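ARCHIVE RECORD
Type: protein–small molecule complex
Small molecule: adenosine-5'-triphosphate
Source of inputs: curated submission
Record status: active
Notes field left blank by submitter.
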Amino acid sequence: MAALELRGVRKQFGEVVALRGLSLEVASGELVSLLGPSGCGKTTALRIIAGFEHPDGGELLVEGRDVTRIPANRRNMGMVFQAYSLFPNMTARENVEFGLKVRGQDRARRQRRADELLELVGLGGRAGRYPNELSGGQQQRVALARALAIEPAVLLLDEPLSALDAKVRLQLRQEIRDLQKRLGTTTVYVTHDQEEALSISDRVAVMSEGVLEQVGRPAEIYRDPRTPFVAEFVGTMNRLEGKLAGPTSVLVGEAGVPLTVQAGHERAPGEAVLVLIRPESIAVEEAASAAEVDSARARGSLGGRVLAFTFLGPVTRLVLDTDLGPLVADVPSIQALTYASGTLVSLRVDPAGTHLLGAG
Ligand SMILES: Nc1ncnc2c1ncn2[C@@H]1O[C@H](COP(=O)(O)OP(=O)(O)OP(=O)(O)O)[C@@H](O)[C@H]1O
Ligand SMILES: [Mg+2]
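STRUCTURE (tokenized, with ligand):
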């Protein structure tokens, strides 16, 4: 039985349909992130789970029990908001013990528990500090401790790291994940940052305009996007319009792209398809002359030239003008040292890194 289940949840604000029948199951101890662009309904979904918002239709179940009509304060959920959600006039300890105080726990016990939790999030020595005496990252740690204090059945996090700088964000997201695993807390994590979702989650639920596009393990979502939206939103993707020429080859304009079509995904020749190619699935080789590019073509490669490049550390991202049209390719930076705008290249697309979607 799922620890948390949304069944066909709908929500409308006036003219705006925020959720169009959202169904999702989260297993006990699992961390599922809701990933999608601004306005796609992530916060609305989270607020409905928490009970701060009522759905217009559908059901919400916690461990098989329908809680759709149960008020927020009786749902046993812990929530961490985007930023600045601590009570400013309370110390870190008072913030963390707040939920326990509301539940009528005695002072000594709840203070002990608050101190334990602050220890757990690495703020053992700072229980007496007020929020304005803590850094952004420390404030979010307090917010996390506060959400965990009540031992929630479900932990809900709404872009908890978005107000923090890049380095703190990386560190804290790893800490959140470690802590979540250690405590085994069922968690829904909202983010619009695909890297964050891919790195922290057991499964990722990609949303667009109030609809769930795809749910899967991070590697599945990255390797096997099922819709054009997921392909575009998760990672960088080259997208070409083509036509199936045979069981394993696609024509894009005049050039053929070799492909491996997964078993069970065979398609009829002549069918219009979208060919999706990850930048890291394109092998690029520098060519000394146009004649060299032609002889590479004779051996089945594609020709192209470098239009622009961006150094990204270990890899360099090339924008290429190729026989297939413009393509983005990532190559090891060490290889790209000699490249300039106009450098001639030959390239091969790794068939295993190529992906087909019906164009419809
Ligand atoms: N209280 C409200 N009243 C009116 N419209 C609302 C309300 N809350 C949300 N909406 C609308 O519902 C849609 C979904 O909003 P939601 O806050 O769930 O998006 P989101 O995915 O969390 O976006 P972001 O990444 O920007 O936080 C948006 O079009 C938003 O304007
Ligand atoms: Mg939001």
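CURATOR ANNOTATION: The chain is about 25% helix and 35% strand.
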